[in-house]
Amino acid sequence: MLVDFTVENYRSIKEPVTLSAVAQKQSDRQTSQSSKRKRVKSDHEIAPGYHVEGWDIELLPVLAIFGANASGKSNVIQALDYLLLMMAHGTQESVPIQRILKYAKLDPFKLDRIFAQKPTRFELRALFDNNIYTYSLVINQNNIISENLDYALNTTKRSRRLFSRQWDDNNKKFIWKTGDDFAGAHNQLQDNIRENELFISTLIKLKVDIIESFINWLKNHWLGIKLGIEDLYLAAITDIQSTSGFNKILEETLNMVQKFDTGLSRIEFKKKSDEQIGYNIYAVHKTHDGNEIHWLFDEESLGTQRLFRLLFRIVLSLKIRGLTIIDELGTNIHPNIVRSLIRIFQNSKTNPRNAQLILTSHDNTLQRNNLLRRDQIWFTQKRADQSTELYPLTDFHVRNDLAIDKAYLDGRFGAVPFLPSEEEMILQGDEQCQDS
After folding, report:
1. C-alpha torsion sign, points 105, 109, 112, 115
2. Same domain, residue pair 111 and 158
3. What is the CATH number of the domain that holds 397?
4. How many CB atoms sit inside 10 A of residue 118's CB?
5. Cα–Cα distance between 203 and 186 in angstroms, integer?
6. What is the pLDDT of residues 285-312, one digit of tens each?
7. What's the structural domain count of the chain?
8. Is residue 260 within 8 Å of 337, Cβ to Cβ?
């Protein structure tokens, strides 16, 4: 499970920003009578955090980021998705990274000449078997500067090194350090790791007991946003048809799609001709007289296509305790459906294995009381130097019964665009007419 993620010097992100899934401590103050009359729930009633044994923390099932266009909210989750893809599949030379490279280049913050020359820094903390693993990476366009993996037991809380390597520019090689808990034959590979290759992505191919649960989580990270490349996502679906649980996942997905009144009866996969690789995907609908009509899934409405893809990912994530990352969750999907998808993750009955969802959205109705806790709502806005600032709603001491969605549009929390006045827009329109 994700604990938190920090990124520095990535695209619009200049200074370090941290997205945290650690729940805020519950307030001891009593719910006001006005809140009770309005049936406003406390944060814990909206979504109880996942209690972590031995750490005195709770982790949240959902994080939602809101902000103006070009404020950097997509860059925050893109950075997380990009790091996880590199950890699972290797650096930019690997095939999976190449397929998304034009959507997720490792670009520094270019509006500052000093930062434009500096490397990018990532840090990820994740929890498995009640141990917290901390992976950090400093990397530039060409080489890895440093790579570290530590872990801390819930019994001692003390951080222990698993491995670290730091580039020595004088000797043109890495200085390696390995912890006592990380002994094994896998360390013999260290001398063969190239300057632009991640050691963690090499370990994924091996069996290393002490990090097995962490590695298994990384292996399943094709649930990321994939940066809008929907055809790659469908390819991923067809690629796993031979796995044992595919039909069950597909069946559960279709059941959910049908509950949302899409009219879809089922999905069929038919192998392409011998000259072609892959499958054709067909949507099946029933006519009024009970007959079936087939057409290519691409002919379905954009909303149905996106909903099916999202639900497939969500069903799978719920089964494997995965992390699902979705950019602009509300695109082509009705707000009531979006709210239902969030509630699936918030409810321990529908999400018993503690899967997590991170999303971005412009839909301020998701901020209304009783859907998201205050510590699940995050904002991005531009600083004066055009870099991205990321901060939670809990930075503002808001009362339980505040209409957060209205206060957000009123600019109480920042993260909204600065718009020209109607008079300015009219004058601009007049100028354009005169020019023509």
Report:
1. negative
2. yes
3. 3.40.50
4. 16
5. 7
6. 999 888 999 998 889 888 888 888 888 8
7. 2
8. yes
